[in-house]
Amino acid sequence: MTWGNTASRSLGGQEDVGSEPDCFFTAHTSFFYKAKSSTDEQIDWRKQELTIGEIQQKVKEYNAQINSSLYMVVNKDGSYTGFIKVQFQLVRPISLPPPKKLSLTQEGGPQERLKKRRTSFYLPKDTAKHLHISSRTRAREVIQALLNKFTVVDNPAKFALFERTERQNQVYLRKLSDDERPLHLRLCAGPSEKALSLVLKENETGDVNWDAFSLPELCNFLRILQREEEEHVRQIVRRYALARDKMKQAMARITTPG
Questions:
Q1: How many CB atoms lie within 10 A of CB 116?
Q2: Comparing C-alpha atoms, which of 179, 169, 164, 152 is closest to residue 89?
Q3: 112, 179: one domain
Q4: CATH number of residue 102's parent domain
Q5: Where is the signal peptide (predicted)?
Q6: Are 163 and 198 in contact, with CB atoms under 8 Å apart?
Q7: CB within 10 Å: which end of the chain, N or C, has fewer?
Q8: For residue 12, is it within any domain?
């Protein structure tokens, strides 16, 4: 079961604009494990504190490079609003609430248990979404808004927002903290998705507070892991069976006279 990229209402009460064609990079992925030279330093957009005058100038330069439907707007108090594009790179399925018709069933019987069931499916890899947010909107609020748009009932702690940059044929990923402001990062980096793009991924296992999940959610995680493990085992068995057949064919050619 899959969903396409449909327009829905943004945080600011406006309609989402259609996603422009995604950019696909062929660079190798790196997670900051390699040493960086002085000419290959990661740019930290978080540390760029801007005055109202600098914000106005940057917004003017930003708007000159993009489609008018994606303009940023500066408010009198120095805050500003605009659109961010978030790409989904989820490797695990997400859960939707049960069909509404189940809520009409009587309590206590088998139908009551059906109400607690959820539908799980994988999002297409090319899914992306535009959100209209404020410069004061935090990363955790962006994650919650994205889940609301897709009516995802999974715990938001399962997900994290990442900053993706491409430099010198390398791709770098940095996990945003809950209080970081994505629109501020977008403005400082400019509209180029090579300089910065935002990606929604599963949270790193070490950062997840498993105590925050309910028992049904934890059981669902175990089922998903079991399926992935079984599929991985099947792939290994197929790979070794194929290698064994090729070895037997090669041995037969060697031992056959002539």
A1: 10
A2: 164
A3: yes
A4: 3.10.20.90
A5: none
A6: yes
A7: C
A8: no
Amino acid in position 200: L
DSSP 128-187: EEEEEEETT--HHHHHHHHHHHTT--S-GGGEEEEEEEEETTEEEEEEPPTT--HHHHHH
**Measured distance CA(74)–CA(50) in Å, rounded:** 13
What does the angle CA 100 – CA 105 – CA 106 come to, to the nearest 5 degrees?
Answer: 145
Q: Are residues 194 and 68 in the same domain?
A: yes
Question: Distance between CA atoms of 157 and 209, rounded to whole angstroms?
Answer: 8
Encode pLDDT of 181-235 as tens digits: 999 999 999 999 999 999 999 987 565 677 777 888 788 888 888 888 999 999 9
Report helix, strand or coil for 84.
Answer: strand
- Short-list 184, 195, 196, 197, CA closest to 54: 184
Asked if 112 and 239 sit in the same domain, the reply is no
116, part of any domain: yes
Q: Looking at the 3D structure of the chain, how many domains does it have?
A: 2
49 contacts 100 by C-beta, under 8 angstroms:
no
List, in sequence order, every residue forming a beta bridge with 128; answer none if it has no partner.
87
In a 13 Å sphere around the CA of 94, the CA atoms on its Cβ side amount to 27
Task: Enumerate helices (H) and strands (E) in the chain, giving the number of each.
Answer: 5, 9
Structural domain including 42 reads 28-211
At 250, which helix (H) or strand (E)?
helix 215-255
- Helices 182-189, 52-63: axis angle to 10 degrees equals 70
CB distance 198 to 164 below 8 Å: yes
> 30 by DSSP, 3-state: which?
strand
